Amino acid sequence: MKAIIIAMLVLALNAQADKPKLKPKVKVIEYPTHWGEPPTKKGEGGTYLPHPWGGWGSYPLVKWIIKNQSNYPVHWGKPPLKQTKDYVKLPGPYGMGSTTLRTWIMEKMQKDKSSNI
After folding, report:
1. Helix (H) or strand (E) holding 99
2. What tens digit of pLDDT does each residue of 22-44 get?
3. Dihedral, 36, 25, 80, 85 alpha carbons, nearest 10
């Protein structure tokens, strides 16, 4: 009986090892020219790029986009730099982004609503 269980585990592990690891696709994106050149420093890891750029990029690239982006009302301030790696629909006209960004937008929208802005 133990031999059968071990054989099944070995087969399951081998089947998983044969599956290719999926990586998000990197999109070639043209940013507004007045932003200057995007950072070439790659940094460790990566994450989804902020709306509306989408795709996958390095953390220095994400920080550079957020610094240059003006999608959100100025009185909201800057979006959070550290974000989760998930990808969800954002409220309003803001497209797609992380849960962290969604929470930030929802908090700002609620504050505007309660302040009649």
Report:
1. helix 99-114
2. 555 555 667 767 678 888 877 67
3. -160
